[in-house]
Amino acid sequence: KEILKRRKCALIAAETLGFEWLSSPMLPDNSLDSIPLLKVVKFIEEIKDKVNPDIIYTHSGADLNIDHRVTFEATLTAFRPQPNETWTEIRSFEVPSSSDYGHTSISPSFLPNLYIDISEHWLKKEQSLKAYKSELRESPHSRSLKGIKNLSLLRGNQVGVEMAEAFQIIRKITR
Length: 175
Description:
alpha+beta, four-stranded mixed beta sheet, 38% helix
């Protein structure tokens, strides 16, 4: 039931942002570590073959959330450098209350080295986040709307723009 609820939220957010989901497997929530990593890798490889992306976005390996860490590892495996690959960059993103709740004793830290100005896009981002009502928390919490906005303001302050999203470039290939 929770998976179907999140899927509905994802469809609403996608509509707000103007894209369509290609596929959405029924994988267990908060227990991706209970299924073989290869199954997740194969799913990502199927999407890779359909889309042939240039830039890949994935969760940070620093996330406390086990599903995010499995997704990160599976993405790096699916996009391992091979002859005839065409993608050029893998970027990881931070997730409030997941990337910031980790600790170096169990995972690396999220260390951004790419900042993208989202000042003109904040209202659309905020609207899409509202689709995930059950995932949002009340302030003061890093996963509240106010907390997410504060993070965007902080990331913007770090690079001299009003609001930004931060990413960590994991691998960049100039072909």
